[in-house]
Amino acid sequence: MDLTSAQAADSSRPTKPDKVRRRAKPAASAMTPAVRRITGLVNALEGLIAFVWLVASYGVAEQLVAAQEAAPTGTVATRPLSWWGLDIPVTLNMSLLIVGAAAGAVGSVVQQGLAFAQYARYDRLRSGQVWWYVLFPVWAGLLGAVVVVAVNTGLISIGDETTSTAGVTVLVTMGALSGLFTNQALRRLRPILGGPGSTEPIEDQPPAGG
Fold first, then answer.
1. How far is CA 133 from CA 18, 69, 180, in A?
2. Fewer CB within 10 A of the terminal residue: the chain, N end or C end?
3. Which of 112, 207, 100, 172 minimizes the C-alpha distance to 143?
4. Distances from the Cα of 102 to the Cαs of 1, 24, 50, 95, 117, in angstroms?
């Protein structure tokens, strides 16, 4: 076979497509000083709202505990709750949902406040983390309400027939812990529920240590 025939044979062979190179993900942009200040103020405001919400809901739960103890047998005590012009009758069981959500929000504010301070210290705050700091108390509040209902149903059993002020304190503690460790709780529930990935920010974590 001469040189011309060999070149023609090589040109007729199918060529393998070049491997597609993966594009490197662009680095996440850092938070601007203005966004950093706004995010910090939002976190502080969320902490204040969560604390006031917890104090108010805990007071309602204690009042309903006393009212349920004084109520005749078979009667469910209620307390009207005014909200945006609406008077909603709240029972003791309903108040536990509210106080659990408030406690979960308080726990989450503690966690995200520490995370914000740590990220800011090492200058690793990223613009993609803003919504995590804004919405994290909402997730933790809902999780706190679910945890309080589950613990109350399985262990403490505060309700229309059984009342206990100490039990309310235990439930508040459980709700706050669920908010403080929301990520760990969701990791345990994810294989069962088939939910999304971690709720933590996907950006670089701040270095461990002091």
1. 43, 41, 14
2. C
3. 100
4. 85, 42, 6, 11, 23
